[in-house]
Design brief:
The complex is a heterotrimer of chains A (about 160), B (about 325) and C (about 775). Chain A has about 160 residues and is an alpha+beta fold. Chain A has two domains: about 80 residues, Beta-grasp domain (Ubiquitin-like (UB roll), Roll); about 70 residues, [2Fe-2S]-binding domain (DNA polymerase, domain 1), CATH 1.10.150. By secondary structure, chain B is α+β, with helices and mostly antiparallel strands. Chain B is globular, with a radius of gyration of 20 Å. Classes of the chains: A alpha+beta (about 160), B alpha+beta (about 325), C alpha+beta (about 775). Chains in contact: A-B, A-C, B-C.
Chain lengths: ~160, ~325, ~775
């Protein structure tokens, strides 16, 4: 391990002061150092999208992001999405539409969907498909995930 | 998977980056978006002890109409309505790269300088060791075309062909000064395949320049692959031409995903300057491009198929760009 | 037969019940194995064989052991006992003993303070090996070979299992048949590719107990294997299953890394976490077998099916895994959904020096079904009848027995055919589609739970459910059934709540923990809804009966006059009155003390008495009829699947949300195998052990799916239900392949149907001047 250096960033709205060696990726920092294990390790090579977090609002692969390079920036993980005791509309839609099965890809999909709906509150089906085309799901065939995002975007139950 | 330790630097000027590079004779890699380099590092591919991140150099992140900084993220570029409106062919290539998640980090310069790919190279240390490594990393022979001289790994960037048909140029900043060269001159087609560019030691790709003529051209990009996202190109076809009064001039065809470097086929298109590009002629031209390439078996789809698809994809792209011109 | 009245309506069951763990999963609070942390936890890593086949002469561990931070280094000699999911074929080892059998086989294990140290230790281990002949071609392996992979191979060959079955007079039927078709299918291996990598945490504690927490879909078989290999009685081992990030069969064998991790925990006395890299997950495999089959079908002039003559050569990889079952299934699952009275099967499963194959969703049924359904499409064309009419003519009757003595009870196959024909507008659409556009039919049949439990003496229950209710009114449910994302916890809770009339939130399904969970055989062979469902229903009914007795006393009526209402017990005798659930509960506790109830399920005796007669017997079967629309680019061979209509008979669907989810996911997985997924080998070497190179379907490739649930109640299924987890996969592949044929006139006999293969087929047809729909 190279020598750790101090690192400050904002995670889920709170300031975090920690240390990280140069070779630490954000995924490891979150899971192993900060205990934010909601961010999942699926392939570790930037393919599956399970490790998606929001970096300054933009969905980003935490397994391919060096922690030291996000110094001073704002991270949202799945743990920071919902208000205390509640769920966001898109989280609620995932529950109601059965968009989770095994749930392992779910955090990544939710962060991607959240960013999509902030940027484009009324996406078409094609826009939804394009937005989630970097997240792999092996359970749902994506069908109910797409339905849930559509429902969240229109406010439909 | 862990990354082996390395030094990490974040210079704020190109000059500082050069100095850091020069001071590290044991070797350093410039780091852009990291979406290509970090997976390779996780697989122990051509590790260097130092990474010099270019993410804090303001000049590299600038966007200014026809000049785009090399550190501009692909995700930002595809959201740039001005850029997309000016260069729809490039925009099409942009949207076909990897996934939106990769594009959030990946950069313009990184895509142009993407490491070539091969299924004997893009494997873990364990996998490669079990085969005795390969010419491109840690070994001395090629498993695709068995010999010890040349690497046949495939250039898998999507943007290079799309920019090449617009006569894009790149600006390179080296310790000895800056130079601007045509994009395709960056690539060393005559080399051994391992050294794939004419970049000089320490030189940094700072920006891409699109000439005024680029906006006058109709252009398209299409990509063959098994899945409509994630996958690198098994073939990338870019075609551009200037259409004036129903006639096509400045016709350019470029391919990626098929050889070690992106390639343009001016020797086939220049003789056709100003000629009507009717169906038979387009078919003939596409067949000539197909006849000129020799893909090898180192990607998912077999090379004979990829070669046949060169003919189909080029013909279709020609029809899209210049098809209307053939009709009187 | 008296026509049954409308099926009874239920309060919860039959509706759309959101998964009970949904809120945890959408907030990142669901705990998976790799999310758990133990004090002092070490990192376990595995060294994998770079040799396809080699005898290990000696190993030098000294340098590895001397590295600071390395706590234990293990090779195979310490725990050499072989294991395997089937008791009759124990040929797997936790760490290779004397011989490495494939590139990726585990040859050593290390526990160290961190991953980097562990990796350094692995690199410092020195092996002296003697290379052995590499076997990667199953066709060669059927004959006696030099250096067979296992000593137990038949007659000095690499054949792990051979099945010969013959019913009726197959040769006679073929001799008199008006029509025969033959399909020779070739299928690449495919793998589960669940998103959560394999991971285990093991901890040996000073009280002499071992706790193993693992991403497993069959905790009980893991429990047994740990006990056998480590030599520790089962009651001193505790197996815990947290949330599991998908299984699809790939977490149903006890796996070597799980045992190696436990061994390291015993060795070090400290908790050890073993998380496999994605590449290692590919090497662990146990996925669908690479297969060549040869299916001959005989029919009379009108399309009455007369005989099947089926052969299969199945590549097993390095170990047996479920292979004996696989070998049977690749033949016997032909026995539905059509009646065929003459049936012959010769199946062989052959070891190779490649990652082991095992059970994957719709195990043993997928490749066979593909060849049959493509063959029936050819047959219909040959005879000149509609593919639907051919199927209708041959459908198995309800309450019948197949020639190999499968007991068929409920079947709504004809309803499936009718529903999907109507919904897809088959008759109107099919004649109208231009060249390049096609529509196809494919059907399915699958077991709803295996009648013969692995590892068990007859008559011991296959599923057990315990309920515990205390004065707070919460109902704790214990069972070793394994929710791996399919929603079995939700169904378990819903069944209990349905029977007791309570809100779902009262019911808490407990995490699987062998110390407290009664045995259920876990999630495989599509058994959970049927078997766990029946056990849960029985347990809940027993508890209900106790509460009803107490309620009857409070209501001053007889128990027979008490109805279960919503959160209350009601009576109308002598007048309309009710007591709240809690009052009845407290009354019952006054007389009974603490309240618990148990339920169990064992499947009835069935099947013939010939050798292998139990294979494929099930208490019920699911049926399917799918129609697919597909477009083919005739120049490039690229396929777009436009829509799939999926008519499925799972009996009564108990949770429509979950059943739809299983069908949609199955279609996704089936399309993946059809269009791109493939374990690609060069010789013994796996070329694509990565999610970038193993082509799982992306969202843009997924067609619209219209689910049609038309099943009638099964007589033995819980509330009339049958399986919906695996059967929905099998019809997908042939439906689309038949649509491809309709589009461009090319039969696809080799999977996956990559664009290059299809383009070659289209070009061949053109070269031969065989036009299709007026083109070519």
């Amino acid at each position: 391990m190279s020598s750790p250096a101090p690192l400050k960033l904002t995670i889920n709205g709170l300031p975090v002061a920690t240390v990280a060696p140069a070779e630490r990726v954000l995924l490891d920092l979150l899971r192993d150092d900060l205990g934010l294990v909601g961010t999942k390790r699926g392939c570790d090579l930037g393919t599956c999208g399970c490790c998606t977090v929001l970096l300054d609002g933009r969905p980003t692969l935490s397994c391919l992001t060096l922690a030291r390079l996000v110094e001073g920036r704002t991270i949202t993980t799945i743990e920071g999405l919902a208000p205390p005791g509640g769920l966001t509309p898109v989280q609620r839609a995932f529950v109601e539409h059965g968009a989770t099965q095994c749930g392992f890809c779910t955090p990544g999909f939710l962060l991607t969907a959240t960013a999509l709906l902030r940027e484009n509150p009324r996406p078409t089906r094609d826009e939804i498909v394009r937005a989630i085309s970097g997240n792999l799901c092996r359970c749902t065939g994506y069908t109910k995930i797409i339905e849930a995002i559509e429902a969240a975007s229109t406010g439909a139950p | 998977m862990h990354l082996d330790p390395f030094e990490l630097h974040r210079p704020t000027t190109v000059e500082e980056a050069h100095r850091l590079y020069a001071e590290r004779p044991a070797g350093a890699d410039y780091l852009a978006g990291g979406t290509d380099l970090l997976p390779n590092y996780k697989m122990h591919l051509n590790l260097r002890p130092t990474l010099i991140s270019l993410d804090r150099i303001p000049e590299l992140a600038r966007r200014d109409g026809a000049r785009v900084g090399a550190m501009v993220r692909l995700g930002d570029l595809e959201r740039d309505a001005d850029f997309v409106g000016r260069y729809p062919g490039v925009a099409r290539a942009l949207r076909e790269i990897a996934t939106p998640l990769v594009r959030a980090s990946a950069t313009l310069g990184g895509n142009l300088l993407l490491e070539t790919r091969c299924f004997f190279f893009n494997q873990s240390e364990f996998w490669r060791a079990s085969l005795g490594y390969c010419l491109k990393a840690d070994g001395d022979r090629c498993h695709v075309v068995p010999q010890k001289e040349r690497c046949y790994a495939t250039f898998s960037g999507d943007l290079a062909p799309a920019l090449a048909v617009l006569d894009a140029e790149v600006e390179l900043a080296g310790p000895g000064g800056r130079r601007t060269i045509p994009l395709l001159d960056l690539y060393d087609r005559a080399g051994d395949g391992i050294r794939r560019t004419h970049l000089r030691p320490g030189e940094i790709l700072t920006s891409v320049l699109l000439p005024p003529a680029a906006r006058e051209r109709s252009a398209t990009y299409s990509k063959l692959r098994v899945r409509p996202s994630f996958d690198f190109p098994e073939l990338g076809v870019a075609v551009a031409a200037r259409i004036v009064d129903g006639r096509a001039t400045e016709l350019r065809i470029a391919l990626g995903g098929i050889e070690t470097c992106p390639r343009r086929f001016d020797e086939l298109t220049t003789p056709l300057e100003g000629a009507p590009l009717d169906g038979p002629r387009r078919r003939e031209l596409a067949a000539a491009v197909q006849a000129a390439v020799r893909p090898v078996h180192n990607t998912f789809l077999p090379p004979d198929y990829r070669r046949r698809m060169v003919g189909v994809y080029v013909r279709r792209a020609l029809t899209e760009v210049v098809g209307a011109t053939a009709v009187p | 037969m008296v026509s049954p009245g409308p099926p009874p309506a239920y309060r919860l069951l039959g509706g759309r019940i959101p998964y009970v763990d949904g809120p945890l999963k959408v907030t990142g609070r669901a705990e998976y194995t790799d999310d758990l942390r133990r004090p002092g936890m070490l990192v376990g890593r595995l060294l994998r064989s770079p040799w396809a086949h080699a005898r290990i002469r000696s190993v030098d561990l000294r340098a590895a052991r001397e590295i600071p931070g390395v706590v234990a280094v293990l090779t195979g000699d310490k725990y050499p006992t072989p294991f395997g999911v089937l008791p009759i074929t124990h040929d797997e080892t936790a760490i290779a003993v004397e011989r490495a059998r494939y590139i990726g086989d585990i040859v050593a294990a290390v526990a160290a303070v961190d991953e980097a140290t562990a990796e350094r230790a692995l690199a410092a281990i020195r092996f002296d090996v003697e290379p052995l002949r590499e076997h990667s071609d199953p066709r060669v392996g059927v004959d006696p070979v030099t250096d067979p992979i296992h000593a137990r191979g038949l007659r000095g060959s690499n054949v792990q299992k051979e099945v010969l079955q013959n019913f009726g007079d197959v040769d006679g039927a073929f001799a008199h048949a008006a029509h025969t078709v033959r399909v020779q299918g070739r299928f690449s291996g495919v793998t589960h590719a669940f998103t959560e990598p394999l991971v285990t945490i093991a901890e040996a504690t000073p009280d002499g107990r071992l706790t193993v927490t693992s991403a497993t879909q069959v905790p009980h078989y893991l429990h047994r294997a740990l006990s056998e290999v480590l030599g520790i009685p089962m009651h001193r081992i505790r197996v815990v299953k947290p949330e599991v990030g998908g299984g699809f069969g790939g977490k149903s064998d006890p796996l070597p890394h799980e045992i190696a991790c436990a061994a390291l925990a015993l060795e070090t006395g400290r908790p050890v976490r073993m998380l496999l890299d994605r590449e290692d997950v590919f090497y662990t495999n146990h996925g669908r077998h690479p297969t060549e089959n040869d299916v001959r079908i005989a029919a009379d002039r009108d399309g009455q099916l007369l005989a099947y003559d089926i052969r299969a050569l199945i590549e097993g990889g390095a170990w047996s895994s479920f292979g004996t079952v696989t070998t049977y299934y690749n033949g016997v699952l032909a026995m539905g959904p059509y009646r065929v009275d003459n049936f012959r099967y010769h199946g062989r499963r052959v070891y190779t020096n490649r990652p082991p194959s095992g059970a994957m969703r719709a195990h043993g049924g997928t490749n066979l079904r593909y060849s049959i359904e493509v063959g029936l499409d050819e047959l219909a064309e040959r005879i000149g009848i509609d593919p639907f009419d051919l199927r209708v003519r041959n459908a198995l009757a309800p309450n019948s027995t197949t020639v190999n003595q499968f007991r068929i009870t409920s079947t709504s196959f004809l309803r499936c055919l009718e529903a999907v024909r109507r919904a897809s507008e088959w008759d109107a659409v099919r004649p109208r589609l231009p060249y390049g556009e096609g529509i196809g039919l494919g059907c399915g049949f699958y077991i709803s739970g295996s009648n013969s439990p692995i590892h068990f003496a007859p008559d011991i229950p296959q599923s057990t459910v315990h309920l515990k209710v205390d004065m707070d009114g919460g109902i704790a449910v214990h069972s070793m059934q394994a929710d791996i994302g399919q929603g079995s916890n939700t169904l378990l809770a819903a069944i209990v709540a349905e029977v007791l009339g309570v809100d779902l939130e009262r019911v808490h399904v407990q995490r699987v923990d062998s110390d407290v969970s009664p045995i259920d055989l876990g999630s495989y062979s599509s058994r959970v809804t049927f078997m766990m469902g029946n056990a849960a229903r029985q347990a809940a009914e027993r508890l209900r009966d106790t509460l009803v007795r107490a309620a009857a006393e409070l209501l001053a009526c007889s128990p027979g006059e008490v109805r279960v209402g919503h959160e209350r017990f009601e009576t109308s005798s002598p007048s309309e009155r009710s007591v709240p659930f809690l009052d009845a509960l407290h009354a019952a506790m006054r007389t009974e003390g603490a309240l618990t109830a148990s339920g169990a399920y064992r499947s009835p005796k069935m099947g013939g008495s010939y050798k292998g007669a139990r294979a494929g017997t099930a208490p019920a079967y699911s049926f399917a009829a799918y129609v697919a629309r597909a477009g083919v680019d005739p120049e490039t061979g690229e396929v777009s699947v436009r829509k799939v209509w999926a008519a499925f008979d799972c009996g009564r669907p108990l949770n429509r949300l979950a059943v739809e989810g299983q069908i949609e996911g199955s279609i996704h997985m089936g399309l993946g195998q059809l269009l791109g997924e493939s374990m690609n080998y060069r010789g013994a070497r796996l070329m694509n052990p990565a999610l970038l190179d193993y082509k799982i379907l992306t969202p843009a490739q997924m067609p619209e799916v219209e689910v049609l649930l038309v099943g009638e109640d099964d007589p033995e299924g819980p509330f009339g239900a049958k399986e919906a987890g695996e059967g929905p996969l099998v019809a997908t592949l042939p439906a689309v392949a038949n649509a491809i044929y309709d589009a461009v006139g090319v039969r696809c006999y080799e999977l996956p149907v990559t664009p290059d293969r299809l383009e070659r087929g289209i070009a061949r047809r053109r070269t031969e001047h065989r036009s299709w729909k007026g083109v070519g």
